[in-house]
């Protein structure tokens, strides 16, 4: 007998009205041990999935549940290395691959192309290594930073790979976070990156992924977090409205606050449904700006609890199945809400504050 899909959905009347940490830990342990088959299509992003899992454990204060040495060995095995110093001038990016399969891709002729490293994978790799206590000065950071400059475009934006892809704020953030984690800003032109970010602020106060595009919660986070990491905006700029700022903070705060809907959740754009992840993307922006006190915390907590799964983790919206992406940002959101027993999150960097020890914002 095959059970109906509805049999596996949590009856709303049985949902616990509290953050179920133990259940979430069991969810992460399952993901750490063996990813379900539904994640097969995400194999190329395995390093990103590992980021959600391992940083998730750290947010929940349970990093002791993973084998740190095994994690370090696996992550380091995914770094691309130039054969010699001259290769650093061949236009390729020598960062981290997203998975073993992306490490050895085939071109149209069937020949192996061994370097498919990616900016997002590199950010995730460094975040994981820093979280598990690895000394980042031991990696080949010179190759990463020198080759990363090849990805920055004339307008200040970044491609994620050396063989071409879209350029937008997501990859500006990745490049900025990489430099911040490594404590070395030689991998990008900060002024060009800043100018590109400013060009992406829309008439309504939010930021689009590219100049002239619709404001979006994720893009807005990438913009504001990048500017904060590079030192172009102060901590709590809303309280310093009389001080000059390179972005329109009051209008940005207004746009963010308008993203909280009647059900308490946040939406990524106007006229869109609320979604667990935007509790962090938009709520995190408000935190950086010093405007988190204007969030309806009770409403947001209530919405998030309706997205909490009986199996642990969080889903995108009530009634769906949990996934790693939304679970991670659900954990982040509850950390921002000061949930007892959770480690505080460094909003700008996407790791816990514990993991940022020794790192310093640019001033």
Which stretches are low in confidence, meaning pLDDT under 50 for 5 or more residues running? Answer: 1-12
**Structural class, from helix and strand content?**
mainly alpha
Per DSSP, what share of the residues sits in E-state strands of 2 or more residues?
under 5%
What top-tier CATH class fits best? Mainly Alpha
- What is the arithmetic mean of pLDDT? 91
Taken in chain order, the helices and strands follow as HHHHEEHHHHHHHHHEE
- Indicate how many domains the architecture comprises: 1
Q: What is the count of β-strands?
A: 4
Indicate the multimeric state. Answer: single chain
Please describe the biggest sheet, giving its number of strands, its sense, and whether it closes into a barrel.
2 strands, antiparallel
Order of strands in the sheet with the most strands?
1-2
CATH topology name = Glycosyltransferase
Tell me the CATH architecture: Alpha/alpha barrel
- Classify the helix fraction into a percent range: 25-40%
Using the CA coordinates, give the radius of gyration.
20 Å
Number of helices: 13
Shape: globular
Distance between the termini: 63 Å
Family: Belongs to the protein prenyltransferase subunit beta family.
Organism: Coffea canephora (Robusta coffee)
GO biological process, one term: response to auxin
Cofactor: Zn(2+); Mg(2+)
